[in-house]
């Protein structure tokens, strides 16, 4: 019985996570249109400074704090593609 309850909870968490990801994608498309549109909204000098002082992880976190609807994958891509 406990196994069925745990499975039900796991399924509910997966469904909620999937809905949140789809909503984030929709908000991203509405706000920026594309990755290039997003790139134009970010302050590259600020992110470069964070990256130089504290590393890639801190730079990714700074991007996501400034742009909360951006996924972790998109923020990482931005930081990875940012010229040094």
Describe this structure in words.
- With 84 residues, the protein is mainly α.
- The protein has one domain.
- 81% of the residues lie in helices and 0% in strands.
- It is built from 5 helices and no strands.
- Helix 4 packs across helix 5.
- It is elongated, with a radius of gyration of 17 Å.
Describe, in short, the structure shown.
This protein has 5 helices and no strands. By secondary structure, the chain is an all-alpha fold.
Low-confidence stretches: none
Number of domains: 1
Task: Quickly count the helices.
Answer: 5
Helix content: over 70%
Give the overall average pLDDT.
Answer: 87
Write down the Rg. Answer: 17 Å
N-to-C span: 56 Å
**Proportion of beta-strand residues:** under 5%
User: What is the count of β-strands?
Assistant: 0
Identify the notable features of this structure and list them briefly.
81% helix, 84 residues, mainly alpha
Topology:
Layout: H1 2-32, H2 35-39, H3 44-54, H4 56-66, H5 72-81
Helix pairs in contact: 3-4, 4-5
């Amino acid at each position: 019985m406990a196994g069925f309850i745990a499975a039900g909870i796991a399924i509910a968490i997966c469904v909620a996570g999937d809905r949140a990801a789809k909503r984030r994608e929709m908000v991203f498309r509405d706000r920026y249109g594309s990755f290039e549109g997003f790139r134009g909204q970010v302050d590259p000098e600020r992110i470069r400074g964070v990256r130089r002082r504290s590393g890639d992880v801190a730079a990714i976190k700074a991007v996501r704090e400034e742009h909360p609807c951006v996924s972790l994958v998109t923020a990482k891509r931005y930081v990875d593609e940012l010229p040094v």
